[in-house]
Amino acid sequence: MGIYSIENIQLMKKFPELAPELYQSYIAFSKAVLNEGHLSRKEKEIIAVAVSHVTECPYCIDFHTKKAKKAGASLEELFEAVMAAAAIEAGGAYAHRTQMHRAYDGKLAESFYSRDDLANINTLTDLSPEIQQTAMAFFSKASKEGKLTAKLKQLISVAVAHTSECPYCIASHTAEAKKEGCSKEELAEAVMTAALLRSGGAVTHAVNMLQSYEQGSEE
To answer: What is the structure's pLDDT at 107?
Structure first.
């Protein structure tokens, strides 16, 4: 059986036996998050697919892609969601250059994260004009309306920003989401979808732990 064999999923049947109450509590959490609410199931599953590409969990990608398709999402919509997630991942690294510059220059600050950083990010001169231009074009295009609305893309961005734990991205995309008409309730459900995917990736990967445990007992 391979490390990421499809057969691994069958090992999840053992989870309820290992910690019955705890596992059922997780299942209840999962259902509550993905139920129709301020966001539709389709929207939540699209967000889940985007976040699962950030957590890089193949089990989650497979499961939520199928759930999103069942909820009516097209492949084009899902790919746009993944590209929006990719832009936030790139943007987080891009934004954190402020930390690198400060450390390199030996400058002290009261806080690692300053709101002034957001205003100064694009004035840093470590990138060539061509790289700077293409990076900004990618970030802009990823947030524009396409198969997905600009509003949903900002919800994806906020969810991914919480997944990657980038305070710059959280601040800037929450502001953009508000401009697109997102409510606090919608944002909260997007963030809880991200929280579920982070925990879900850990829970699902327990099949690999079980596989390793069983192989170890055979040695």
So the answer is: 79
pLDDT bracket for residue 103 (50, 70, 90):
confident
* Whole-number pLDDT of residue 116: 75
Say if CB 10 and CB 4 are below 8 A apart: no
Q: Answer yes or no: is pLDDT of 120 > 80.
A: no
C-alpha dihedral sign at 170, 176, 182, 184: positive
Neighbours of 42 (CB within 10 A): 18
The answer to whether the beta carbons of residues 113 and 120 sit under 8 Å apart is: no
Two tokens at 89? 């991942």
* 138 contacts 87 by C-beta, under 8 angstroms: yes
Contact criterion met (CB below 8 Å) for 77 and 147: yes
